[in-house]
Amino acid sequence: MDALDRGIVEMTLLGKTFVYITLVMSVVFCTIALMVNSSHINYKEQFEKADAAAKAADAKNRQISAQLQEVLAELSIERLARKSSLAALQSELAAARAELQAKETDLIAKGAQLTALVQKETARTQELADKTKENDLLRKQIMEAEDNISNILARYVDTKDKINRLQGNFDTLEARFAQATDDYTAALSQLEILGVDERTPLAAPPAGVNGQVLAVSTNGMVEVSLGRDDGMREGFTLDVTRGNQYLGRVRVTTVRDDKSVAEVLTGFRRGAILEGDRVDSKLY
Description:
By secondary structure, the chain is of the alpha+beta class. The chain has 2 helices and 6 strands; from the N terminus they run ααββββββ.
């Protein structure tokens, strides 16, 4: 009895569960049925519309494909043309690069030639400057040599003139010396006749003898250009003048061959005696 009751109870729970599940599923199916019923669509119409759209899309796709093929063909032609143009440009570029390389090589060679020419020109310029400097120096030396030659020639001419004048003076002096020698010989002859010689003191200087004052001292002494060769003797007197001015009288105290020393006689002084004044053996 207990066992039967437990089986009834268990079956009851299982049935309840099954019933609950069945109920839930019924509710679900009912809900689905309601949903399907509420959203019912005419699939045939939709299919026809979709089919028409697909056909239109396919036609459009074929048209686009055809246009794409045309574009691809044009693009292929253009690509081939561009490849050909690119190849030509590459060939031109290669030729230009080769030409540029050749020109660069030629430019380097010409640059080297230009450098060599510049160096040569620089050397020639320096050589020209050196030659110009040397030429200026030589010109200066030539001008100095010409000046020296002119000076030497002028001195030569002047010296020659002096030699000619001296020769003339020498000839004159030689003639005068010969005349003086003759006069001296004649005078000696006359002195021998008179019984005197050249050492016999004279009372007065010879007349007409004149000279000049060579120096004047501060102690009243003068030096004159007349000496023993001019007939001067110690104690002779000479008159001193300057132009037409009478300056005084001096007395010879010391005699040499070519000059004498004399003292100024204060009693006859009429002015200051200076170097260059004239002295005469006798004025009156």
